[in-house]
Amino acid sequence: GKSDKLEEPEANKAVAGASSKPLVGVIMGSDSDLPVMSLGCNILKSFGVPFEVTIVSAHRTPQRMVKYATEAPERGLRCIIAGAGGAAHLPGMVAAMTPLPVIGVPVKGSTLDGVDSLYSIVQMPRGVPVATVAINNATNAALLAVRILGSFDPVYFSKMAKYMSEMEDGVLEKAERLGS
Ligand code: RP5
């Protein structure tokens, strides 16, 4: 990280709405990913999804990554959102160590426009899938997590349907104002 290292409590404090009985785990390789990843946390919060957020680095804290991934199911997580930049191994390594669905967010770094992160995450070899969203699009990662929860929980299913219909209304209103 560039400045102060964020330990767990600080990382959770940095994102209001983080819960003690999380269904979704939001992890990232570095505190420098937090500005991007907090966009996803805001979505989870707005849908009322219990989530947690912390820093887990595949390269700098490999033991912590193994512990996080292997303990995630027994802690009640249903889905993991993992953001990382550069040689972004985190989502793929976590997916290799848990049967839970993993959504990868390629975080744009200071070089290569985030294409390095995108390729690292999207090019998972056969057998270990990572659902990859667009560069820096933690918003879509969180929306996908809500849809995963909605596939077995009607509460989140309805919330997603409402979100989609409001989004549609928003566009139709704008179109109307333009006179078409
Ligand atoms: C990755 O390296 C992190 O996910 C981050 O995107 C990138 C740079 O990390 P810092 O050097 O800013 O800590 O592991």
From TrEMBL:
Q: Which family does it belong to?
A: In the C-terminal section; belongs to the AIR carboxylase family. Class I subfamily.
Q: What is this protein called?
A: Phosphoribosylaminoimidazole carboxylase
